[in-house]
Design goal:
This protein is α+β, with helices and mostly antiparallel strands. Helix content is 47%, strand content 10%. The protein contains 15 helices and ten strands.
Length: 451
């Protein structure tokens, strides 16, 4: 059901497409199905439920009595689902995310304004395009083939092959390019097709590197071949994608020099003078690796190694709670207040632990890792400040001070109310007196009997 309400905004979700031809299986049927469901939902009679989203009706559809619309919660859910389905359907990938959101909003307004006909076929006809099946050519640096070669699921061509598009614009085949990968890909947006081709080629190259290493005459330096930045579909259609590891230049201005001089980390000596500085030096090394890594998961793992060097304890079992709790206390120890710990706990427990122990961690974004990196840098500064202020020379002295801080009970009390269930096991371990009784606790059963 749609109700006439005040004007509001429109949002949209992201949708990732991976693999050479992702989005084809099932999507041709999924798009009409979700649109049909959406059309049915918005045509229901009013029932007074509070709306979850509002928006203006396009001018060519609006009337005096029909200027703005509101979506109920289940309609909002269907709106989001429809966007995700369309964004993952190759027939619609030529549309930008905002275009998908706007097209769907117009669709639902039409469905409400004209309830006599099915608007789904018109939507498909207006916005879907025929899927192209093409070959994307990707230069590979530091790897050479002499003939057309199919290996590890990848077709590799010499740079002189007649099949390879001619050099033009970004598509350059000069050294260090030694061969070209030819990857079949489908879609309606060349840039996105090229990105899927890169994902497929990178996977094949990873497999190839590992397989080739079985030859004892090949050393690791010979296995550092990688995709170049360019791609081409034919002699006239080419482009490039910036590699994550590409560096930008930086000029050290006087203000930046002053900034560095004011950072406590800048005073760390080449050779640590005590155990406290040794742990800080180890953290710096991991943080440096994180800054040079390009994959969000790898960066996150390096950052957690750094945080564990500062605040961890090799003897602890519930390490997520230990690291997150001490990080929160470290902020309190320098007078800035508790650093919210639940984000750190979740990243450690769900992402870091899954990756380290052979699980499949949930996807994380560059922004999420960037926020965590900022917090780890701040933790290092706090660590060095607390160590200096208290004259600590051992990391164990610092973490012991955090574990016995006067405000320790306050953080426990706050987390029991606001931290969620994930904190219960750790908090019960460090504060057993206030532990929540289990339903199987004998004392609880006796109390129920007495009542």
């Amino acid at each position: 059901m749609l109700t006439a309400v005040a004007t509001g905004g429109i949002g949209w979700p992201g949708a990732a497409i991976v693999g050479e031809n992702a989005g084809m299986s099932g999507q041709a049927a999924a798009a009409p199905r979700v649109l049909k469901r959406f059309q049915g939902l918005v045509r229901r009679p009013p029932d007074g439920v509070r709306t979850a989203r509002t928006g203006r009706v396009p001018g060519d559809i609006a009337s005096e009595a029909f200027r703005s619309l509101g979506l109920l919660p289940d309609e909002e859910e269907a709106y989001q689902e429809a966007q995700a389905i369309l964004l993952s359907d190759l027939r619609f990938e030529h549309l930008e995310r905002r275009q998908v959101a706007d097209a769907l909003w117009r669709f639902l307004c039409q469905c409400c304004a004209d309830r006599t006909r099915d608007h789904v076929p018109q939507f498909i006809e207006e916005h879907a395009r025929d899927v192209l099946d093409v070959t994307c050519y990707l230069p590979i640096e530091h790897l050479t083939v002499e003939t057309d070669t199919k290996i590890a699921g990848l077709r590799l061509l010499p740079t002189t092959s007649d099949v390879v598009p001619q050099q033009s614009g970004w598509f350059v085949l000069d050294p260090p390019v030694g061969c070209v990968a030819a990857v079949g890909v489908s879609g309606t947006n060349y840039a996105r097709m090229a990105e899927r081709a890169r994902v497929a080629a990178e996977h094949r190259l990873r497999v190839l590197r590992i397989a080739l290493r079985e030859n004892p005459g090949i050393h690791d330096q010979q296995l550092r071949f990688t995709l170049g930045e360019a791609y081409a579909f034919d002699d006239r259609l080419s482009g490039w994608t910036r590699r994550p590891e590409t560096a930008d230049g930086l000029t050290l201005t006087p203000s930046l020099v002053d900034l560095v001089r004011n950072q406590s980390v800048a005073a760390l000596p080449l050779v640590p003078r005590n155990k406290l500085e040794r742990k800080a030096d180890l953290a710096v090394r991991w943080m440096d690796r994180a800054s040079l890594a390009t994959e969000p998961l790898a960066r996150l793992l390096y950052l957690f190694f750094a945080l564990e060097a500062l605040l961890g304890d090799t003897g602890e079992k519930l390490k997520a709670g230990v690291v997150a709790f001490r990080r929160a206390m470290l902020g309190e120890a320098v007078g800035r207040g508790f650093v919210y710990p639940s984000g750190t706990y979740w990243l450690y427990d769900k992402v870091r632990s899954a990756a380290v122990h052979g699980g499949e961690p949930p996807a994380i974004t560059d922004d999420e890792v960037g926020h965590f990196a900022w917090d780890v840098r701040e933790a290092l500064a706090d660590y060095l400040r607390v160590g200096k202020d208290h004259g600590f020379t051992w990391q164990s002295q610092l973490v012991d001070a955090l574990d016995h801080h006067l405000d320790w009970p306050q953080l426990i009390a706050w987390l029991r109310v606001n931290g969620g269930d994930m904190w219960t096991k750790y908090l019960d371990k460090i504060d057993p007196a206030a532990a929540t009784p289990s339903p199987d606790d004998p004392s609880l059963r006796e109390s129920e009997t007495d009542e």
